[in-house]
Amino acid sequence: MNFNLKNEIFSFFQAIQVVHYSSICKSFKIAVENKKWYKFIKDNFDKLISETSFIYTKMHEIKKLIMEQGESETSAFDICLYLTLVKNNNDTSININDSNFGKNVENSKFLKFFILNKNSIEQLLIENNGLGENDKNMLYISEAFKINKTIKKLDISKNNLGKYKKIMLDLGHALKINKTIQQLELENNNLGVDDKNILYLSEALKINKTIQIINVGINNLYVNQNNILYLTEALKINNTIKKFDISNNFLVRMRRICFI
User: Fold this and answer.
1) Rg (CA), the chain
2) Quick check: helix, strand or coil at residue 132?
3) For a designed S-S bond to 158, which of 43, 44, 128, 141 qualifies (C-beta 3.0 to 4.6 A apart)?
4) What does the pLDDT look like over 195-216, one tens digit per residue?
5) Residue 85 pLDDT exceeds 50
6) How far apart are CA 205 and CA 140, in angstroms?
7) Confidence class of residue 173 from pLDDT cuts 50, 70 and 90?
C-alpha cells in the first residue's frame, strides 16, 4: 500500500465530524494544551495506532486547537504529520515529498523514531523538503539508517544537501553500515560545490555492498575535477552498482574527464 502524506493531510483537515473522546484522545488534548504533544506521541505510539477513528475524525479539531494555543499553522501541520505517520504505520511506501519537512528539526527527529519503530517501510520518499537547511536533519535520518533493515529505496533529492559538508559525512557513515538500501536518489542537491561531499559519498560506496541504483544527476559535479576522480575510484572497487546516473552535470566543461 502506498501513502501520500500531502493528500492525506489535506483530506484530514476536511474531516470536521465530532466523535466521542476516548481516554487516549482526552490525554492527547491535554498534552497539546500543555505543549507537550511531541513527547506524548512518542510515549503513546502504539496506543495512538489503535485509535484509527481518532486519527481520521479529529484532525480538524486538532489543528484548530493547536493554533488556538498560539502555535503557527506550520506547527499544526507538523503535529498532524506525526499522527498521520502513526496511523499509516503499516504502509510500505511513505511519501513526504514537497512538505517543507526540513524546516522543523523535530520532524526529522520523529522520523528517526518512526523508522526505528516500524518494520514495514520499504520506500521512503523525502524529496524537496529543505533538509539541507539544518545539518541535524540528516544526522537524525542517517542515524536511523544505521539500524533500519527494511527500507530499500531512499529518495532525498532536491534538498540542498551540499550546503553543509557534515550532511554528507553523516550520510556516508550510515551508508557504510546500512545493508538494505538498494536505490539511492541524490539528484539536484548541489553536492559538487564542495568536493568533500562527493569524497564522503565515494568512500561509502567503496564499502557499501547493497546499493544497485544511485542517482547524482544535476549536482554541479563539473565545479571540481576531484568529484569525478573520487567517483571513478569508488566504482573501480564497488561491483554491486548496476546503474549510476551522473546526467546533467555539465561534465564537458571539465578539462579532464576520467572514464572507467
Assistant:
1) 20
2) helix
3) 128
4) 999 999 999 999 999 999 999 9
5) yes
6) 21
7) very high
